[in-house]
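BUG: 3D viewer hangs when loading the predicted structure for this chain

Environment: internal workstation, default settings.
Expected: structure renders.
Actual: progress bar stalls at 90%.

Input used:
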Amino acid sequence: MNNDPQLDLLIRKMAQEHQAHLPSPGLVWWRAQIQKKFAEKERVERPLMIMRTVAVIVCVGIMTGALLMNWRQIASVLDQGQTTALFTFAIAAGAVLLLAGLLLLRESMKKS
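Structure tokens produced before the viewer hung:
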């Protein structure tokens, strides 16, 4: 079977003997129903995902604005060496932002 005519003959013979296997109509209907329910669920949950994304963006904007508005006070605290409270706040804010981002990522990964 090292030459091309034998291989060609074998492939043609296998192609002639092959019978296509179609799934049963019930299975096709069942899969269509599952896809329909998934599409409906996705349509219902889309506004919630948009709301969560907008909420995270708004929170990041508010936190950035608060940081910029209070930068002088933050700089004076850093200059005085009173960094414990500031670092505690920064760690808490970072944890909240990280958690929000992870929740959004998890929701988007569920859809994929």
